[in-house]
Amino acid sequence: MKQKMKIAIFASGSGSNFAAIEEACKKGELNAEIVLMVTNKPEAFVVERAEKASIPVAAILPKEFATKDAYEEAILHALRESGAEWLVLAGYMRLVGPVLLTAFPSHIVNIHPSLLPSFPGKDAVGQAVSHGVKVTGVTVHLVDEGMDTGQILAQCAVDVVDGDEDKTAEAIHAVEHGLYKDTLNKLFSQ
Ligand code: GAR
Fold this sequence. Notes:
Blueprint: E1 5-10, H1 16-26, E2 32-39, H2 45-52, E3 57-59, H3 68-82, E4 86-89, H4 98-103, E5 108-112, H5 124-131, E6 135-142, E7 152-159, H6 165-188
Parallel strand pairs: 1-2, 1-4, 2-3, 4-5
Antiparallel strand pairs: 5-6, 6-7
Helix pairs in contact: 1-6
Bound molecules: glycinamide ribonucleotide.
């Protein structure tokens, strides 16, 4: 058995993907250990989830730094202390900048709620519903300097449910949790 991969999860929201990954690590379904949860939103529910799971939290506020580089240097310091080898973005609603991209080349992965390259950026589910598409989905991809443009690792289609954003988001979440776990497993076993 290979050593567990040390991962840092980046999240800004409710953290259902964080919870699914944490559970998979705990059950031994993912050969990884979450060594840090990084957030730019200290009030987000994901912080509560991390604390309950006894995962260290780095809540770092961009507005407290003069530049994006300085903000990411602060994150990098926490990451170095944690020993993280991979950065796993799970609803982290900020563009990753050069400091982190340079420090973790080809070791940052993201999940996005659409079939990229359709509907990049914020509110991907809302974009899909307002365009009237019947099928959208989930993409797991490596992160580069663009907005959801990195190498695609896995995709899964999800039907738009009744033209309704909330119902479709729920269906997408259900698919995300399994797809992220499976894709991370493949990545970490290479
Ligand atoms: C997920 O659907 C994820 O794909 C999306 O945010 C949601 C977070 O949910 N990410 C993006 O839109 C990134 N551009 P969660 O907080 O319940 O894991």
